[in-house]
Write the structure tokens for this entry.
Amino acid sequence: MNRKLFLHLLISILSVIAFVGIWHLFTAVLRVVSVNTLPDPMKVFTSFIKKFSNPNPDGATLLQHTAASLQVALTGYFYALIIGIPLGIMMAWNKYIDRFVRPLFDLLKPIPGVAWIPLMIVIFGLGIASKAAVVFFSAVVPCVLNSYTGIKQTKDVHLWVARTFGASHHQKLFTIAIPTALPHILTGVRVALGAAWVAIVAAELLGATRGLGFMIQQSRGIYRTDIIIVGMLAIGICGGILTSILTIISNFLLKGRR
Amino acid sequence: MRKILQRMAQNSMYAIISIVSFLLLWAIGVQLSDIKIVMPGPWEVIIDFVDSFIHPVGRYTMPVHILYSLMRVVPAYIVGSVVGITLGILMGWYRPINSIFRPIYELIRPIPPIAWIPISIVWFGIGEGSKWFLIFLAAFVPVTLNSISGARSVDPLLIKCGEMLGASKKHMFRTIVLPFSVPYIFSGLQVGLAGSWATVVAAEMIRSTEGVGWIIISSMDTNDVAQSLVGIMGIGIVGFLLATIMRNVEDRLCAWTVREV
Amino acid sequence: MRVDSTGSVDTVISCQRVSKEFSSKRGTTKVIENISLEVKRNEFVVLFGPGQCGKTTLMNVLSGLDTATSGTVYSLGEKVVRPGAERGVVFQSMALFPWLTVRGNVAYGPKARGFEKSVWIEKSDYYINLVGLKGFEDSYINKLSGGMKQRVGIARAYCNEPEVLFMDEPFSALDAQTRYLMQEEIMRIWSTEKRTIVFITNNIEEAVYVADRIILLTNCPAKIKKEYHIDLPRPRDYTSPEFLSLRDEISKNMDRTL
């Protein structure tokens, strides 16, 4: 059993080596692909390291860009959580709110967050607020949707049990419906984070003076493909880390539920 | 039957009330605040939207813009989905294939398709090529992920059942693993479609001369907020239609997925 | 007990000194201990025992779905190591293919083994008819009631024309009324199409109603406690004095469990 596991790990490692090897072969050894199109892996690696301390060519170091992106993304995300989750819960719990809010929500839901960028810039200007608003629009949809489906999972039997104990409408919501919905709500929280991260990159591609999206867009203009790839990797790594943090938190919160 | 009709009539009444009150709030809000300098009222936007079907926005009318965007989305989406389903199912079912492709896939997965825009322009120019590449990624990544989890979740009892009935590994792959994964694949297709649509809008916003994304981005240069909202409406409607079509296809193809409880 | 149990043509399935242990972090649990038995052609054998004791595990080992920790299972003189077409199984949870129609499920075996279309159509027609599902050939599984689903399960196992049919508490998911009906049905089916059947149940009435021979198992670990040859004439009457006295006697010998 363990030997099999080791074998598969070995295949994976070989596969990565092959991938980087072919990349290196075509770029650095054979030079079929020009540096302006795709730099060799070593170059990307050194650029990645250098970018931590070197603000050239786009005016800020990698960590400064990352911090800028994170700041905006988390601002918008935070508002999406504190508005989206209660809204989804209320829509599922109260049929009057549902009837009035849902048509509007369904209307706005299919619009991708990116599409709001120009409008938000007109309303909020080019600063943090407009980008945070775009992030908000992207992240709020999964928050509402998942909270809503979560609450709808509540079993009638459980509600009946609560009623026989004389629980009030509010008590039923807080002691039965919300605990039932928790796994779904947490899924929404995670999906929303992914959406927020995508939205901030998009917003920075279109108009920003700092941030990872801005960094890769700037580098394109001057054909610094190494910096573009460094930026993409940073975006991927950051997104991955953020998601894993949330996964750990939600696993902790759902402990004992299977 | 009568009750259902009554319920439907009631629901659509609420929907109309809700949307009309939203539009009224918008109209009043615009009238009462300083924002009216830049922000048009709802009627203006609706009239502009209808007008965009007759008079061109930029070079083309709205349906032509939509068609341009769809021409970018559809072929690349199909290719991305086919590749994603094939690779995903194989990765989910055969451990060695998983071991080979997993690390590279995991490298690509967390990078949002939108973040590929700059490099795709470097690689494929500003034409259709770069957009097709982006849409391919937008479809490929989620479809692969869901196909993997589909093939992974196959009920082991059903596999034992197949063995018990004398089916070969190959036969079981086709008749058990594949059909079992279909609902999972469809949820990947659904996510991929929404992602593709968002990505094409983003790509058109960054570099293009036509398409629905272009409609909203060009409004920035002219400071025409009404046009931006017209674009948003177009994008929303097409996005909604795409999702609906997909859901109908799914219902048609998996009549059996009524969940067993 | 005959020593040479594998040579006899009349013996369809046999096992010798089969034991099964499951080991986890908390130690090992013995589920089956030293069971030897043989089943004759066209015999209806019931493995009967209380509670959660290793009946299903024993069946899994006999049918090849699981392997024994020690001891050997022979099917027609050949060692059993994996599931195979000559050993059909009807599962407690039915395990039907929901994406196939009744016809698709029943014909799965013959199709998988490469029979021509005319052959599998004919076979499946015959067995669908036999279990009383004529007219439901094109229905999907989810549209059927529990009893009908298990009819599909029986037809599916039968249609593959195995040497022996294992039925693992096939009616335990059904309501009491349907269960009686299905007991009559399985007797009717068996008398029309004689097969070797190893039937598992924890319901004493069911055991006495269907069996040629009842093998009484002890509670964990499962050992053979006693064997009963039931030669009451069929169809049996649940209320006849002979039936009741047999039922009493076996009950008395059964291990009590909580």
Observations:
- Chains A and C do not touch (no CB pair under 8 Å).
- DSSP finds ten helices and no strands in chain A.
- Chain A has a mean pLDDT of 90.
- Residues 1-33 of chain A form one domain.
